[in-house]
Description:
The chain has 267 residues and is an alpha/beta fold. The chain has helices spanning 8-17, 29-37, 49-52, 64-75, 96-110, 124-132, 148-151, 161-177, 189-198, 219-222, 240-256, and strands at residues 21-25, 42-45, 82-86, 114-116, 137-142, 181-185, 203-206, 214-217. The chain has 2 domains: 8-236, TIM Barrel (Alpha-Beta Barrel), CATH 3.20.20; 241-267, no CATH class. It has an 8-stranded parallel barrel, surrounded by 7 helices. The longest helix has 17 residues, at 161-177. The structure holds 3-methyl-2-oxobutanoic acid.
Amino acid sequence: MAEKKVxxxxxxxxxxxxxxxxxxxxxxxxxxxxxxxxxxxLILVGDSVGNVLLGYENTIPVTxxxxxxxxxxxxxxxxxxxxxxxxxxxxxxxxxxxxxxxxGRFLKEAGVEAVKLEGGKEVFKxxxxxxxxxxxxxxxxxxxxxxxxxLGGYGVRGKDKEQALKMLEDARGLEEAGVxxxxxxxxxxxxxxxxxxxxxxPTIGIGAGVDCDGQVLxxxxxLGLFEGFKxxxxxxxxxxxxxxxxxxxxxxxEVKNKxxxxxxxxx
Length: 267
Ligand code: KIV
C-alpha cells in the first residue's frame, strides 16, 4: 500500500498539538530517499542548491530549469514527506501571472506538492493568485537570501522595533494571502515566538529559536559537508566532508601502491 503523504492539514494539526515539524533540504534522489526513509516531514528543494551544489556565489543565478531538474530527482525518491520546490529569483517577481505559470511548472513537471517564495507585503497578491490556482505556498520572512543586495548582507533581521513590527504584519498578511506555513530565517528568538503565537499556520525556523512550530536546516551544513562554512544557527551532526576526503586520499594511495584492487575485488 502507498504510504500516506504529509499534507498541509497535517501540519496545521501538528501545530495545534504542539508536535514539532521537521524539514531538511535535498537536491537529489539519494539524499531525498534517505531523509524520507528516516521520517522527515518536509523536504525543501531549496534554491540554496545554487551555492551548495552548483558553485554559484549566492542563490541569484539559479534558474527555473535547474530547480525543475533537481525537484524531479527528489520527488522520484520520496513516498511520505511533502516536497516543496523553492521558486528561484525572478520566477515570481516580475508578474503574478508569470509566477502562477512557474509555480505550475513545479507541480506539473517535477511532481512537488508545494512551492516556497520569499517576501512580505510585495508578494501578497502573487501568493493569493498561486494559492487560488490550487497550489499550496510556503512563505519566507526574515533573512531572504534572494534580496541579499537590497539587504546588504546576511545579517540577523528584525532586530529593531520597526523591522520587528513590519515582520509581524507581513506574517499576518501572508497567512491572510493563504500560505500554509512560513519559514522564519535568522531573526531573534523572541520575535519568532511572538509571530508563532500570533498566526494560525506553522512557522518553520532556521536561526529563529526553539519556539517555532518546526525547524529546517540545509542538510549539507548539518552533515559537515562544507568544512569552511559553519553558521551559528546550524548544528553539525557529523563531519562527513572530512570522512569523504579521508576516503578519496586512501583510494588514491592504494591505487598508486597497487593495494587496490586486491584478490577479493578481482575475477
Ligand atoms: O534555499 C534554502 O535552502 C532555504 C532554506 C534555508 C530555508 O530557503
